[in-house]
Amino acid sequence: MAPIVMESIKSGVASSNQAPIAQLGNDMSTVLGQSVTLSCEYCFDPEGDELSYNWQLLGQPDTSTSVLESTTSPIATLNPDMIGEYLVAVIISDGETEVTSNTQIIDVRNNQKPISKIFAPLTASLGERVILDGSHSFDPEGAELNYEWKIIDQPNHDEIYEDSSALAYFTPMSIGDYIVSLRTNDGTQYSDPETTAISVKENQAPVIVIQGDLNRTICIRGECRPKRSGKVYDPEGEAITFLWTLHKPDNSTVTLQDDSAKILQFTPDIAGIYIATLTITDPANNLSSESITVEVTDLSDVLTGTVKGRIVDTTLSGVENALLSINGKEYSSDQEGFFNITLDIEEGNAIKILTADSRLVKAQHVTAVIAQQDFIIDLGESFVPVKQEVDTYLWTCGDYSGPENINLRFNMIDTFPATNKFTTHFDETFSFAIDSNKSIALPSTASYELFVDDEVTITAPGPKVTIYYAPILGAMNIVTICNK
Question: Residue 469 domain-assigned?
Fold first, then answer.
């Protein structure tokens, strides 16, 4: 951003009047055909005097005939008619002193075509509905997308349903490979087609359903027999073979009497962690496995209590089904982000709560040591930044002569609102080709320190940037680099 220029015109009469402050915001980018709203982000008078405005168009492409509208209002409008850079500034006055702001650059570019993305399974079973997810497609300018799904190659004549929606589906009625295509349109142009292949097979892996918690069930040494009921089945009705394995603490002498039984039952003999794993196999050698983790401790050491709270995003809306790891065991919030968990813990230990959800930034909360029964850990509404796809552009200045590929590092230094219950961490580096863009996942709303390779420097937006949470319109970030 250009330096602030403070030009004052004062009368010859001595006055204690303080000059008003005029500073426009960061340089902006837009696409041809969109109006640009101009406002003085930091315009004010120290004495609170009413200000007058005079917006100026200082530069524009050679053949442009655009003019500013509402030039004497706090908010002006520019309707660019050519691709290129437009330079604007504003002169403000408190009635005694005039001040000219810094120059703001508006970079006008052509509309870019949208990017289509497909999330779908690589394999499917005959007669099973296959969900096609195109909701991660995006438009670089944030325009709303229209969807066009097609099956371009298949062994049958199956049809896609909801073929104009972000989520579509089809039911394969033949074994073989299905090639699915998606194109999106932003109202101006189509994306390049995105394709994916789905292999349809007849046989499915056998299924294990174990009732009760699978992990970290505390038993009392000498007073329990860890046992889980459930069922297993093969979708095609074939016979299933069983194989149990047991991982046990050092010095334990527990053995399995029958590792091929349908029901496993054993009695722990010492405190520690026991992990029982069941593997089932069908005649086609398809495998499925599931594990049960049992934590065994002494009766006098076990304390029981509650951990509760709510995980929210920047808008203080609950994060649906947020995954948390509490002392190594995974839990999930409900659809409104609430969790209320009964927890057993050895006396004198702390409770460590971690985010275990790819949608959330890495965050943790560690309690003090627990020393009483019926403890309650209430985290209340706890903000944790949600990762969102940010369309990030890396531009170069006119005389750039540096490397073709640049490493751009984002180090999160602050969040909005503050994460007062969890400590968070995000420090990642992304590789960019110069004068290009790509979508990267950044926690939001958050402020970042920006770093680039030693031989170049960032000229815009500067050493720091804030990424705002925009789940509907999408977020965009532009970084400009020059030679040092």
Answer: yes
Segments forming the whole domain that contains residue 355: 302-383
CATH, residue 454: 2.60.40
pLDDT digits (tens, 9 = 90+) for 464-476: 999 999 988 889 9
286-309 pLDDT, tens digit each: 889 988 888 887 666 788 999 999
Paired residues of 109 in beta bridges: 31
Mean of pLDDT over the chain: 89
Q: Would residue 8 count as lying in a domain? A: no
Q: Do 326 and 277 reside in the same domain of the chain? A: no
In this structure, are 470 and 404 located in the same domain? Answer: yes
DSSP string of 222-282, one letter each residue: TS------EEEE-TT----EEEEEEE--TT-----S-TT-SS------SSEEEEEEEEEE-
Are residue 340 and residue 379 in the same domain, yes or no? yes
- C-alpha distances (whole Å) from 168 to each of 114, 124, 148, 178, 198 are 19, 15, 10, 14, 14
In degrees to the nearest 10, what's the CA dihedral of 446, 452, 458, 462? 20
**How many domains, the chain?**
5
- Residue 290 has which token pair? 């599931």
User: Same domain, yes or no, for 272 and 312?
Assistant: no
Show the tokens assigned to 423.
Answer: 């400590």
Mean pLDDT of 37-60: 92
**pLDDT bracket for residue 218 (50, 70, 90):** low
- State how far the Cα of 34 lies from the Cα of 139, in Å rounded to an integer: 15
Give me the residues paired with residue 325 across strands.
Answer: 330, 354
Q: What are phi and psi of 428, to 5 degrees?
A: -130, 150
In a domain, 216, yes or no: yes
Q: Does 451 reside within a domain? A: yes
The whole model's pTM is what? 0.44
Residue 190 corresponds to which amino acid?
Answer: Y
